[in-house]
Amino acid sequence: MKSPTEMLEAEHRVIARVVGITPVLVERLEEGGVIEQDILKSIVEFMRIYADKCHHGKEEDLLYPALSDKGVPMQGCPIGALVADHVSGRSLVRHLSDFAEAYARNEPEAYIGLISSLRGIAALYPGHIWKEDYLLFPMTNKVMNPEELDTLYRQFEQVDLSIGHDTLERLTLLAGDLERQFG
Ligand SMILES: [Fe+2]
Ligand SMILES: [Fe+2]
């Protein structure tokens, strides 16, 4: 049987590649180096489509409600905290996008803003991924029965289809490219 939590874990590995380069970019900026606009735009696009729309979408729209149906509370630990992380992630990516544009225009406050949004992303995601991989997903596999897990997997496939396999494939390759370039 295809596992919905394994699908999400595999996506975590791809997201971790992109998140993993953010400290390297911070270091480069702090050493006075320049980061090309294309790189920053690629990270923003990856975080918006792959990490947020596709991955967080599967979690917030399908997994968390399915867990709620099984009696897991939507507020507090663990789901409320995970949703709050997604909200913070969205805000950091919005800042990254805004500061990347300001950085391209050589605006003086852009440098500090760019560093703080990259640092925020680097600080947020590893812990978030850990909480899901080691707490939420094992719990999911315990509270949901095989048919329910299978239904969730099929719903996840529909999300991939709605975004487009080509787009997801391109962004997965982009994550590998970024890691090779900066990792
Ligand atoms: Fe999440
Ligand atoms: Fe996740």
Structural class: mainly alpha
Low-confidence stretches are none
- Count of spatially separate domains: 1
Radius of gyration, rounded? 17 Å
Shape assignment: elongated
- Beta-strand residue fraction: under 5%
The first-to-last residue Cα distance is 34 Å
Q: Specify the biggest β-sheet.
A: none
Ligands: fe (ii) ion
Q: What is the CATH third-level topology name?
A: Four Helix Bundle (Hemerythrin (Met), subunit A)
What order do the SSEs take from the amino end to the carboxyl end, as H and E? Answer: HHHHHH
Describe the structure.
Helices cover 85% and strands 0% of the residues. The protein has 183 residues and is mainly α. The chain has a single domain, classed as nmb1532 protein domain like (Four Helix Bundle (Hemerythrin (Met), subunit A), Up-down Bundle). Helix 1 runs antiparallel to helix 2, helix 1 crosses helix 6 and helix 2 runs antiparallel to helix 3. The site of one fe (ii) ion (FE2) has 5 residues, from helix 1 and helix 2.
Label this structure with key terms:
0% strand; single chain; binds fe (ii) ion
